[in-house]
Amino acid sequence: MDAVIQPKPDLTEVPLVELRSRLRSGEWSAREVTAAYLERIQTIDRGGPALNSVIEINPEALAIAEALDAERVAGHIRGRLHGVPILLKDNIDTGDKMQTTSGSLALAGAPAPRDAFLVRRLRQAGAVILGKTNLSEWANFRGRHSSSGWSSRGGQTHSPYALDRNPCGSSSGSAVAVAASLCAAAVGTETDGSIICPAHANGVVGVKPTVGLISRSGIVPISHSQDTAGPMARCVADAAALLGAMTGVDARDPATRHSRDRALRDYGRGLDAQALDGARLGVARAYFEVDAHTDKVMERALATLAQAGAELIDVKLPAEEKYGTSEVEVLFYEFKADLQRYLSGRTVPSGVRTLQDVIDFNRAHRDQVMPFFQQERMLRSVDKGPLSAAAYRKARATCLRWTRSEGIDAVVRKHRLQAIVAPGGGPAWLTDAVTGDHHDGAGCTSPAAVAGYPSVTVPAGYVFGLPVGLVFFGRAWQEPVLLSLAYAFEQVSRVRRPPQYRPSVDLSRPAWE
Fold first, then answer.
1. How many domains does the chain contain in total?
2. Labelling 433: which of 212, 229, 393, 416 has CA 20 to 30 A away?
3. Complete DSSP assignment for 191-234
4. What are phi and psi of 54, to 5 degrees?
5. Domain with 338 in it: what CATH number?
6. Any idea which residues carry the catalytic annotation?
7. pLDDT, tens only, 283-297
8. For 273-284, how does the pLDDT look when each residue is reduced to its tens digit (9 = 90+)?
9. Is the separation of the CB atoms in 458 and 172 below 8 Å?
10. Residue 202 falls within a domain, yes or no?
11. Whole-angstrom Cα distance, residue 411 to residue 419?
């Protein structure tokens, strides 16, 4: 009798929650699923439309999946992600055969000495670490005229909705890989906008948690005041599942101590499709004037919120002009100090140990590293003094005043809000290696990012087929509330659709939908 040939799993748009169920039932094995994702990466990311979102494949992925299958057969289930393939942004350490470079050739050539804390947590939950995703080099903290999604190690990542459009950044590869179903879900990182913007621009869900909910140890840093990792997924339930798998108190990141009694292991349990009914939501109206087409999408999103029972209250946050300069000052100071601390634990062939070493490496390898843009941000950062400097302390105090005590906290308290909503930004711009990003500054990421508070973006609609997202943000540790509100919006709006990998925007499509 001929052997029965099992069809390969079709993983297009398969939710993580459904994937987990099929693995549990035995319909699919972790090895089959991992092999199917690897085939999609080869076909879609490296061939076909050539999205260029995955910078490196884990050579041990199939072996890890086989071992997890054997554990399942033996009755040992590690956790809720047992056998689920996850991609990581290439600034997150893995102590395996893969590199961690932040997209920079300066860090290439040797793996990190150990897993980042969040990677340990994912392995403990049973995840298959499938590979690393491309990003804006140094998380977009190198030069002024950078092209988001470009790195000297990985090249340029492309939007799956229009290949000539930019994926935004810096978690470009994670967002694109999720949108194209190259993984069950992915992990990105954010300092200000680096999860929310690419998630919004690629039609996926992005969660920027409260700083301290997820450990930053083992992640190439910009700023200990604002940096955080977070999940990126095709739906809110999947993002919630991944978020819970990464939390935990880590002795190597003091900020996580504050999460001890606040972090959850299962953020999916509290998702409520009726969460909008009776919710009081602040509308950050100053951010809603993006462009004529995006504004239509956003007004429809507000109408959807109201129809679902939310009470919408126009609110006014402090203008970003009050703290924007101070935010940049904080980042310059902290990048120099935090990067040196990180590099002290790495040994790489280039020998870099300080920010000055990185600058010198970039100059020595100018043709490879700086063919399109320079390193102005690094040059400004290296000239900063210690974190004890009065200018640094003053800048940080200004940031906290206008985003926390007189910002989000004050607005939420005054209007008794569950959350504030705003656009994620406008549609993706044309990628331009010559002059860099053409981001118009639209979108609302800075208030929550500078405060260190949580935000969630969820697909809200399309402009000529390009995704735009709606952002929910609020006070510290309010992830369960924000996720539930975003989930309820997602359930009533149902706007997400998979990418078609068009070479450019189809102008025959509706201007907004």
1. 1
2. 229
3. SSSTTHHHHHHTT-EEEEPPTTSS--TTB--S-TTT-EEEEEES
4. -105, 120
5. 3.90.1300.10
6. 89, 170, 194
7. 999 999 999 999 999
8. 999 999 999 999
9. no
10. yes
11. 10
